[in-house]
Amino acid sequence: MDSSSEHNGFWEKYMRCQEVSKSPWEVRNVLLVVVTLIAAVTFQAGVNPPGGVWQDGESGHKPGHAIYASDKNAFYVFLISNTLALSTCILVILSLMHHLPFRLEIYLAIISMCVTYASSIFAVTPHTDVKFRYIVATGFLPFGTRLLVLIFNKDKNRRIQRTPLNSTMDQA
């Protein structure tokens, strides 16, 4: 047996889902804490980008623009990655909070947070450096992916129900 298959076997064994003695509500609560922390960090990073913002207009910089934006490619990668992390966390939070009370209030708060995030990155980013349509598309990527998975699973379940075994059992 080669070392790569031995290595894969270790990780499969290590990462295998064990029976958990926790209730689904406890697992949901842990997930909410984790994604809320990640969302808070990514939101803060978007509102206050690494390196801060220019305070004055010296050297041709515009006050309020991100210092990090002077390295265009790195800043663009930061914006895309940060937006993807935030939108994925928002999707998980919405999924976990779907059947709980006060969900309308939660939806309003999350929409407001998204608008605040978008307006903040728009304000600190030099408009000539970044194509905002890619950032907006990145924000919708987790939601579109989840929608496609749901559609695929629904279609898959429909095809399983129409197998010849099920149809012959229905006729009998």
Characterize the structure shown:
With about 170 residues, the protein is mainly α. It is built from six helices and no strands. Helix 2 packs antiparallel against helix 3 (about 70-95) and helix 3 (about 70-95) packs antiparallel against helix 4.
Q: Give the overall average pLDDT.
A: 83
Question: How many strands in all?
Answer: 0
Supply the number of helical segments: 6
Strand content: under 5%
Shape: elongated
Summarize the structure.
The protein is mostly helical and 172 residues long. It has helices spanning 3-15, 24-47, 72-97, 103-124, 132-161, 164-171.
Strand-helix topology:
Blueprint: H1 3-15, H2 24-47, H3 72-97, H4 103-124, H5 132-161, H6 164-171
Helix pairs in contact: 2-3, 3-4, 3-5
Descriptive terms for the model:
single chain; 172 residues; mainly alpha; 72% helix
